[in-house]
Amino acid sequence: MRYQRKREEEKGQSLISKVVSIGFFGGLIWSVVASVAAYFHFTSVSPKSFILRSWLQTDWTDQWLGQLISILVVSLLSIGIAFLYYFILKKIRGIWIGIGFGVVLWFILFWLFEPIFPNIPTIFNMDSDTIVTTVCLFILYGVFIGYSISFSYQQYKDEN
Fold it and tell me: Which position among 13, 84, 100, 110 has the lowest Cβ density within 10 Å, counted as fewest Cβ atoms?
């Protein structure tokens, strides 16, 4: 009895650690992809545009160090987003919920939080390349987070 309870607690901790790693690596992977897209001018915004350049207007924030720090901060913030998905949507299977999650995140960041980021142009002032690229990146991020967490949760439920 005691052994079984301890094993269930370890499985629960294992699931939580998977959510943390999914969130961190999701943020890391997709913010690196966003940085590369910004470097090749597919988009006019990058992680540093949100994280550093909106509050700091120094030279180092526009270089590789600013981009690296921004990627790390996005990766850490992504852990919270992964837990949000875990607590609200973990039981829903499929790719469509991840797509919707990514689109909702995009609207929250670019529409609702727009006044917080003075360095980012409004949606109506963005070029079409930036809108399409960022929406696609957020969709891919949402699918990555959503599908990975739902799969891990289903795997956990099937083991029990």
Answer: 13
Q: Give the count of beta carbons closer than 10 Å to the beta carbon of residue 143.
A: 20
Mean pLDDT of 97-116: 93
pLDDT at 6: 55
- The encoded tokens of residue 39 equal 């470097």
Helix (H, G, I), strand (E, B) or coil at 117: coil
Distance CA(49)–CA(69), nearest Å, equals 12
- Torsion angle defined by CA atoms of residues 131, 135, 138 and 142, in that order, rounded to the nearest 10 degrees: 170
Q: What's the mean pLDDT in 2-7?
A: 57
Quote the CA–CA distance of 73 and 59 in Å, as a whole number: 19
Q: What is the mean pLDDT of residues 79-92?
A: 96
d(CA 59, CA 10): 47
Domain ranges of the chain: 2-159
